[in-house]
């Protein structure tokens, strides 16, 4: 059964591969080359679906200097439609809804083939600048124009550590029509386990079935990438951060940690009866880090069906 | 090579079994029976050493009602000398130094056979009530009267989570003559790994060799024992606490968690080059929990020499 059906039925055990679209400035031969090698990589790895991010500058969220400069990227929906034709399996297309006027968003929602595309609607990173469309309004538009389009939401274990109410946000998003979740990049398994535990309890208290959660893993091949992850709000346990800093081979150490976090989460969610899958990505565009992400996905695939 | 020599040389890989002496009210046949079955258990498990606690009421430390009532216990040194003659391998005898006048403590220190006995000196749980002898003074007495008596100190990962300076306390204790550490009961591996990481870094910065750390594991066979652990100041990650609460078999779930924490710490310390061993105990006097502690020790022994 394919990814969209499985997510719709509330099943876990799926493997996703996350992609950031190329820079908006890429064009012609360059863009064809990037898209070509991406499709080849996807066909070889053969995940159940691809996740395509909608990148925001997010200056609002973090006033500190971004370790990698922000460069606008292609629209994920355009990238999928125009450049990833070779990928015929399902895609989960992110929509940073604040970037789009309502009519543009409605039009896009209406056009999606619901048997092959799902979406993750993402609100503004700062409530002071909600942008052109707010998340609740985007959820309404989805219900009105394309209720069959499977819609997911972002879940942030770190927010649960700090505020303790992320499980309630998840259930509120379910009420608003959300049928699966994708986590922020995860390095702190304990934080995610606390969230899943509270989510499971709250689902039980309300008599609601827990929805599938994709845990996002991203390897880190350099201290600059580590710095970028931290800038993005990923909480890396101090001992793990020091492991990466001490290591002669940051990438290998990071692969070990991400593998352990992935196995830990799959095992824990299975024990709790919360459907879970994995979303593997590289937050950097470096070749070695993308290759390591593919390796991580291959290594973790058997554990999805354990 | 025996435990005392190994600790003296700064080596890890040792297995300790922790004992709380019987109630002070036990006597005659009852006491003989308890000591007899304890010695039989020790001989069968054959750890590298036994740890005998010196129990304080610790009302100062936690104003909340103690889940198990406090009952004074036999003096650990007396218990070893008078009732555990069948155990001929090394013993680590705790001394809650605030309980003893200086001359009593000095006399005890002087009498110990340094090839078979080591001690852990423990200060008062509240600085408002230092008791009859303070920890710094006890350390001085040890240096003066019996400098060859191997002396350890307590290390509390939870205190590191809250204050961030436990690694500095460890190094200060080393300067005061301490040659090994025994942790509080450990359920939160991340907290302990953060501490070990900072300890390793500080040892490197000072050009000092890290000393052996015994990580204390204690299974929990009931929610009342869990409550007692929490009362003692043990931080149990929320997801783990809920696992124990949800489980049909608390003891089996706890055994799984303690085993995982033990393996995690041994693996992590090996990677960091910090000598580590295990100290397995039962905080309750229930037979099933003591048996489970013996089982945990047997299961973890092979990992000590991995």
Structure in a nutshell:
The structure is a homodimer of 306-residue chains. The first copy, chain A, has 306 residues and is of the alpha/beta class. In chain A, 48% of the residues lie in helices and 14% in strands.
Largest sheet of chain A: 8 strands, parallel, barrel
Strand order of the largest sheet of chain A: 1-2-3-4-5-6-7-8
Shape estimate of chain A: globular
Rg of chain A, nearest Å = 18 Å
* The CATH top-level class label of chain A: Alpha Beta
Low-confidence parts of chain A, pLDDT < 50 over ≥5 residues?
A: none
Count the helices of chain A. How many? 12
Protein name (chains A, B): Methylenetetrahydrofolate reductase
GO molecular function, one term (chains A, B): oxidoreductase activity
Keywords (chains A, B): Oxidoreductase
Report on the structure:
The structure is a homodimer of 306-residue chains. An 8-stranded parallel beta barrel of chain A has the order 1-2-3-4-5-6-7-8, surrounded by 6 helices. Helix content of chain A is 48%, strand content 14%. Chain A has helices at residues 3-9, 28-45, 76-83, 102-111, 135-145, 157-163, 166-175, 189-206, 223-231, 238-246, 250-272, 287-304; strands at 15-19, 49-52, 91-96, 117-122, 151-155, 180-185, 213-218, 276-281. The first copy, chain A, has one domain (3-305): TIM Barrel (Alpha-Beta Barrel). Chain A has 306 residues and is of the alpha/beta class. Chain A has 12 helices and 8 strands. The model of chain A has no long low-confidence stretch (mean pLDDT 93). The interface between A and B is medium-sized, with 14 and 15 residues.
